[in-house]
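Troubleshooting entry. The earlier prediction with calcium ion gave an output that would not parse, so I re-checked the input for stray whitespace and re-submitted. Clean input:
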Amino acid sequence: MKNLILDVDTGVDDALALLFAVRHPGLRLRAVTCVAGNTHVDAVVRNTLTVLDAAGVDVPVARGAERPLLSAPHDATHFHGQDGLADLGLPAPSGQPVGVHAVELMRREILTSPDPVTLVPLAPMTNIALLLRTYPEVTENLEHIVFMGGSAGFGNATPVAEFNVWHDPEAAAIVLGSGVPTTMYGLDVSYEVAVSGEDIEKLILRKDHVPRLAGRLLRHLTVSGAGEARIPVAGGASIGDAGAVCAVADPAGLSTRTLPVEVCLADGPARGQTIVDHRTSNGDIDLSGRDSGPRTKVAMGVDRERYRQLFLNTVCGAADDAACGLPAGAAASRT
Ligand code: BDR
Ligand code: CA
């Protein structure tokens, strides 16, 4: 069982990640921390509690940073809906966030966990940078940081920068330089893991409200993400942040290379770009730390069918392949 903390800006695909995490039998979700990103942090807290309510689980949720370290905040409600959660009119949550800041909740859960914790930021990494700077002792019980963000190729917030890193580049630079092992599940790879329109309609027809909610959220993404030609399934949707949690549950589905990654912190068109050094020799200019500095496991490719099946089976919560529209026996491939 892997101990997990998700840091989110829920967010339609953060919601998919939450539903996957609470349903996967090999993951123990210890806490969820919230940060400004896709929408204001108060809406992120509300949306996160709403999703956990719908899943019927009681996991501590904490409010965190309401703005990036240095940059001004920019939301993405044009993509995620005015409420940040696809404007589905979901009921207000019954739960409340815990009475401590996200950084305090992460510290407590990491230091009291009997086994090392994997931290999974699916949002701008403001909370994580604050945690590592305030309580560096947490690194002793932190196994890995697997984050959705950055890209070894194209961007979305700008031509070269992915939203989560672009929103708080200084925070991302702190995390990458922290010495904690990191895996970058970037935008370029995340687009690859997609479900079809048929998958989505099957989810919506399920009796259980977890897959139904996943289906309704994904249906929103087929509309808001419709202009993105890189999503490989016409009429379908990428599962986005949920793919990073698939990578924690089933790392063998991801191919990675361990490379130097530097975040562009300069103002201008490249701010927030994750510059991945693919060179195999020193070249003319050694980017800071190419030889001696921190390295990151960069996702270079993903077994998209494996993660599609893993996601669908997991949110359906069953070895009920036929109902999820999968070939018989696919559920057995879950880790
Ligand atoms: C990332 O930004 C957000 O819109 C998504 O939730 C995801 O975390 C993709 O760039
Ligand atoms: Ca997110």
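This one parsed fine. Residues 319-323, 328-335 have pLDDT under 50 and may be disordered.
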